[in-house]
Amino acid sequence: MIRIEALRKEFDKGVVALDSIDLTFEEGSFVALLGPSGCGKTTTLNCIAGLLEPTSGSIYFDEQEVTNLPPKDRNIGMVFQSYALYPHMKVIDNIAFSLKQKGMPKAERHEKARKMAQKLQIEHLLERMPGELSGGQQQRVSMARALVKEPKVLLLDEPMSNLDARLKIEIRDEIRRIQQDLGVTSIIVTHDQEEAMAMADKIAILDNGHIQQFDTPEMLYHHPANLFVAHFMGNPPMNFIDASVSIREDGTWLQGETFAVRAPAAIAEKLAQMDGKAVVIGVRSHQLDVSLAPAPETLELKLSIVENLGKEVMVSGELGESRIRVTMPDGFAGSYEELTTLRRQGGSVYLGLQKEFNVFDKESGVNLIG
Amino acid sequence: MKNDTRPRFERKKENIAVLVMILLCIPVLFIYFSFFKNAFFVGGTGAFTLDNFRFLYEPIVLGQRTVQPIGQAFTNTVIFTAISTVCEVVISCMAGYALARMEFTGKRVITFSLLSLRLFPGVLLLIGALYVLMYLGVLNTLFGVIIVAIALRLPGSTFIIRNFFTGIPRDIENSALVDGCNRMTAFFQVIIHMVKPGIASISMFAFMSAWSNYLLFNTLIFNTKTPVLATYLRVLSRNDQMIADYGVFAAMALVYMLPVLVFFFISQKQLMEGNISGGKGI
Ligand SMILES: Nc1ncnc2c1ncn2[C@@H]1O[C@H](COP(=O)(O)OP(=O)(O)OP(=O)(O)O)[C@@H](O)[C@H]1O
Ligand SMILES: [Mg+2]
C-alpha cells in the first residue's frame, strides 16, 4: 500500500506543480495518473520515486515513511518514457544492473536477468547493445530491468508514448498481464484516457497540480465529479448543454434557451434547493433518445453534419452555444440517406433525455448529481 | 566511379576543387619533404644517416657548444604532461558534472566566469602567476609550473565537459539512481561512459598543450636545471654562430612530435564515437 498525504511541490520561481495531493494505492493494484500535459503527473511519480524532494507532505510505503529516503532505498522499479537504457552495456547487463548494485555475484544475477527476459520474450536479445534494438524491444528491456529486482512498486512514466498504435495495444496487454502475474503495485502515468481506462483499476485525474477525481474507470465515466473530468473522460466526448434550474408546481424543470425538460425524480431530488441556478447538463450519446418528429420536452438539434461511421450513423449540430454529437441508437427510424436529405433541407432531430444524466454547477463545475 | 549519380556540372566543380587543393598542398608537402630529408640524409652527399639522432643518448657538439642528451628534458616533459593532463581531466570532469547537474548558489556566476576566463588570454596572467608562485615559494620548480598550467587550462576544459554532461538524458541518470546507485556510483558506472567522447577530446587537448608548453617554462623557470623538450629545442636554435644545424633540429622535432601522433591515434577512436542517447530518439 502506498499513501500520499498533503503532498506539495514547488519549483523555483514559485511554480507550484503539485498542491495538496492525497492518494492511497491499494496493495497490488494498478493505478493510472491521467491528465493533460504539464498537470504534474511526472512530478508526482518522481516524488514517489524519490527523484524529487517534496516541498511538504509525506509519502508512506505500508507504514514506513519514505519521504526523505533516497531512491535506491525505496525498492522501486521504474520505466521511463525514453526507456533510458544504459547505452554502453549489453542488454543482459542492463537488466542485471540493479542486482549488481546489491552485490549479487555475476552468475546469479545473469540467471535472474535471463529468467525475467524469458517472461518478456526477449531472451534472444540479451547479447545485443541497446542501440541495436527497436523501440518495442527497448521498451521490453526496460520493463525487465525494472521488474528484475522484484520491486515493491512499479512506476511507469508514459511507457508507450513512443510506440506505434498496434504495438501500444500489444505492450499494454503485456504490462497488464505481468502486473497481475507478479501482483506488484503499479502506477502508470499517461495522458491517453483510453489507455488508462483499459489498464488501470483506478484512475487519478490531475489538473493543474490538483487531484480532480480518484476513482474506478466506471465511476469516472458515469459519474464524473466535475466538468473537467467530464470533458476529459470517454470517447466520444460527453455533450454539454447550458440550462437553468426552475422549480415549479409540476416538478423540477431544466430550462434552456430553446427547450424545457422535466428532470427525472432522482435528479430532481438533488436539485431541490437550487431554483434559478445556472447549470450545465452533461449527457452522453447513449443517454439520449432521438426522434424525427417534434415532441414535448425534447431538445431541437439543427443538423449540421451527418456522418456514416460504418457501424453507426452520427449526427452533430449546434444547440445554443454548444456543439452536440449523437450517434443514432439501434433501431432508429431514419436511415443515413434520410438524415442527409433532412440536413440539406435545414431540418432538425429531437433529443429526449433519459433517466440518467449529469448536471453540473456552471460556476464551480461541480457535479450536482454524482 | 561507377555509382556516381551526381550531375555532370557538379563533378566538374569537384575536379576544380581537387586541383586547387593539390596546388595548396604542394608547399606543405615540400616542407615535410625537406624536413625528413634534413633529418635522415647527409647534407652534401645525400647518403642515409642516423647521425642526427645521436642526441638521444650522448652529448653532441655543435659549433662551440655541447648539447646534453635529451634524456633529462624528455623525462621532465613526460612527468609534466602526465601530471597536468591527469589532473586537468579529473578536476574538470568533477567540476563539469557539478555545474551540469547539481544545485548550489553561485552556479551561474561560476559557469559564466568559466566562459569569460576561457576568452581571456592566459599570457596576461603570467605576471600575476609569477608573483603568486614567488609568494608560495615554488617559483623555478616543475611543481609551480604544473599548478599554473592546470589553472590556466581548467576553465576551458571544464566548460567543454560540462556541456557533455548537460547533454546526458536525465532519465538515464534517474534510472541509475532508482536501480540502486548513489550519485557517486552512478557517476562512475554510468555517467562517465556517456561522456567518453568529451573526455577523449579534453584529454587530447590537455595532452597537446602540456606537451608543447613553452611559454610557461620560458617565463617561470630561469635556470637550465629543469629543461623540457620545448626549451631544449630552443637551445639548439640559439646557436652562437647564428646558424642552426637543421639536420639535428629536424631530428629533434621528429622525436618531439612522435608521442603526440601516438596519443592522437589512440584517442581519436573515442573522439569519433558519440552515442550518448539511451533510447529511441529522445
Ligand atoms: N525542474 C522544473 N523546474 C521548474 N518547473 C518544473 C520543473 N519540472 C516540472 N516543472 C513544472 O511543473 C509542472 C508539472 O510538470 P510535469 O513534468 O509533472 O508535467 P506532466 O504532467 O508530466 O506533463 P507531460 O504530460 O507533458 O509529461 C509543469 O508546469 C512544469 O512546467
Ligand atoms: Mg511527464
Task: Tell me what the structure shows.
The complex is a heterodimer of chains A (370) and B (282). In chain A, the strands form four sheets. A six-stranded mixed sheet of chain A has the order 6-7-8-3-9-10, sandwiched between helices. In chain A, helix 2 crosses helix 3. Chain A is elongated. Chain A is built from ten helices and 20 strands. Chain A has helices at residues 41-49, 91-101, 106-119, 135-147, 165-182, 193-199, 217-222, 227-232, 265-270, 336-344; strands at 2-10, 16-25, 30-34, 56-61, 64-65, 76-79, 153-157, 185-190, 202-207, 210-215, 239-248, 251-255, 260-262, 278-283, 288-291, 299-308, 313-319, 322-327, 348-353, 358-361. By secondary structure, chain A is α+β, with helices and mostly antiparallel strands. Chain A folds into two domains: 2-232, P-loop containing nucleotide triphosphate hydrolases (Rossmann fold, 3-Layer(aba) Sandwich), CATH 3.40.50.300; 239-361, Nucleic acid-binding proteins (OB fold (Dihydrolipoamide Acetyltransferase, E2P)). Chain B has 282 residues and is mainly α. Chain B has a single domain, classed as MetI-like (MetI-like fold), CATH 1.10.3720. In chain B, 68% of the residues lie in helices and 2% in strands. Chain B has helices at 8-40, 71-101, 107-119, 126-136, 142-166, 170-178, 183-194, 196-211, 215-220, 229-237, 246-272, and strands at 60-62, 65-67. Chain B has a two-stranded antiparallel sheet with strand order 1-2. In chain B, helix 2 runs antiparallel to helix 8 (196-211) and helix 3 crosses helix 5 (142-166). The chains are: A alpha+beta (370), B mainly alpha (282). Chains A and B meet through strand 6, helix 2 and helix 4 of A and helix 6 and helix 7 of B. Bound molecules: adenosine-5'-triphosphate and magnesium ion. The site of magnesium ion has 2 residues of chain A, from helix 1. The site of adenosine-5'-triphosphate has 13 residues of chain A, from helix 1.
